[in-house]
Structure to design on (153 residues):
């Protein structure tokens, strides 16, 4: 076995065969696919996906990963807390589904991903600057659709 194959397998195993029910906020779990049902290009992809949701860098090199906020579990909490009570379910649905789309794409390798860290920062800024949470999520959704419509490099 090559050293690279063994190292890749070690990263995958250290991810603990991550499942969405292990790291996605509980109220999103029924709205997104379990992470072990998503497709990944390489062993680090699901580990970066977990980083997107939780802010945890376990299994990732610290020189490439900054732990903490923002992470999507926190962003979704903020969006739901800002929403009017009557709108919370709709906001939760949008935030959770956007989280899966954005996170899965952002966690891909840089050469092929269509959403990068600069895009995440711009989306977070847009969410924070838009007074109506639902409208902010709609604007982010439109941007995500635009980015996802671009061809991979």
């Amino acid at each position: 076995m090559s050293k690279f194959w063994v190292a890749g397998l070690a990263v995958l195993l250290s991810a603990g065969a991550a499942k969405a029910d292990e790291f996605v906020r509980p109220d999103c779990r029924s709205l997104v696919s379990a992470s072990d049902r998503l497709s990944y290009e390489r062993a680090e992809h699901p580990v970066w996906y977990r980083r997107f949701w939780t802010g945890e860098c376990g299994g990732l090199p610290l020189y490439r990963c900054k732990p903490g906020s923002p992470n999507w579990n926190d962003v979704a909490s903020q969006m739901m807390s800002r929403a009017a009570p009557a709108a919370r379910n709709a906001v939760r649905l949008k935030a959770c589904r956007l989280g899966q789309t954005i996170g899965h794409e952002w966690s891909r390798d840089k050469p092929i991903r269509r959403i990068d860290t600069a895009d995440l920062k711009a989306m977070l800024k847009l969410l924070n600057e838009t007074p109506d949470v639902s409208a902010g999520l709609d604007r982010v959704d439109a941007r995500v659709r635009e980015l996802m419509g671009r061809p991979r490099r």
